[in-house]
Amino acid sequence: MESNTQPLIPQQNHKKYHTYSFITCFAVVVNYIVGTGVFGLPSAFYSAGVPLSTITILIFCILSCVTAIYVIETLSRSHGYAMAVESGEYKCEMGYEVYDYSSMAQMWGGKPVKWATTITLMCSAYGSLWAYVATCVSTLSTLFWLIYSNEPMKCDVSNRWHFDWKCNVTYFTSIAVYGLVVIPLTFIDLTEQSLLQLVLTVYRFVSFLIMFITCAVQLGKNGPIELKVNTYEDVSFLKEFRWVGFGSMFTHVAFALACQQNLPDALAPLNKKKFSHIATLGSIILCCFIYIGIALVTSWCFTTSTPSPVTLAWADYNGYEGGWGVGKAKWWAIIIKYMILLFPIVNLTNEFPLVATTLSTNMRTLFRNKNSKRTKFITKALAAFPPFILTCAVGSLRVIFDVTGSFSFVLCFSLPCIFHYLSRRKVIAKFNKTKTPFSGPWSRIEVTGAVFIISLLLFITAVVFIIKELVTNFTVA
């Protein structure tokens, strides 16, 4: 019979760990959250209507906060359990080791749970990385045609299979350029990027503020605008519950607030573990309200012509008549234009290595010699290259979110509940301990069950609406 104490992952040792401060940790978690979701959210906001979209985001924010705490509690139990095997004494606290999703799944649920978790995480992470590449490629292509011929919308990725040869050359060249930048960054350790994380967090907030202000000025002076020919201004979405768009909204939000699977990597280097929950919950809540503000004002500004990613709308910004008028762009408008157009590239150039690191860390658990340099290199390569191959085939964010959003949902909402339940039950049985430093009313088993059931019902509802939307679009076509 196999011992219950073997194997423990990761194996404990007493090496010196690299750490960072609370501020850096907060920045890292924010950087994990703010991925492609925010760029596709305005389009989904318009599709589902403001009331339904706002309610959906707030519900997901609450669920994200609760399930993030479940992950933190499970990390504490994982460290305490591993230490108890070495010393015989169980002390529930967070350590500096990285207990990734796959490690926690094996520790608390055994090999079946580990394999299910690893496969789900890989699908979700590849989906996120795929979306990052697609967003940046779309932006690079837009920038090229804006500079070369002042035709920023010449090559629309939603019409990918009808590109002419010029658009195809631009598309594949953009893929190569982005790959040359981010793939090398994937092989750099996260703790060596602390200053970069802080700088990019500031850049994100400044860009969000500029997006909000420019759209608010446009709405205040001239109202909504039409970015494309044959589109019209439609503000009915401000008051309507558009259930037909709920499925798309659901998958976008699942991407937009996803960070739970990345918390083990983000929180492990934090020097003051008692603030882990503050850094995490603060990041989620802050991003939630930023998302609502940005999605509302941008979808209201561009209505039916809201692009995805939404930053492409600034390709026509010139500073006249509220911002999107007629005339040669003013000097300060040019600065704003390129700052926003470059936002996805800068943002996701930083985000890609973070998620690739999480993916490679979990993939390493599938190898026998998981800590060798060769294994680390192979898993990072396996994490970094496939998203570029997928983008060669499909570059539409809407398709990517609809296909892979369900995996992110399972990782962010279902698995944390399962980890919390399994770890709590095992620790009670073995050590008769129930609480962690982060326990509260949300830790009760009834609450965990309720969160799991609510998440499952939301997931089923979203799948139904996604299928309905696909059938409707196919019928119309």
Automatic annotation (TrEMBL):
Residue limits of the Amino acid transporter transmembrane domain? 18-437
Gene3D superfamilies, sorted = Amino acid/polyamine transporter I (1.20.1740.10)
The places in or outside the cell where this protein is found are: Membrane
What is the predominant subcellular site recorded for this chain? membrane
- Mark the transmembrane ranges: 20-46, 52-72, 129-148, 168-190, 202-221, 278-300, 331-356, 377-401, 407-424, 445-467
- Gene Ontology cellular component? membrane
Q: Which residues form the signal peptide?
A: none
InterPro entries named among the record's database cross-references:
AA_transpt_TM
Pfam families given in the database record:
Aa_trans
Q: Does the keyword Transmembrane apply?
A: yes
UniProt KW keywords: Membrane, Transmembrane, Transmembrane helix
State the name under which the record lists this protein: Amino acid transporter putative
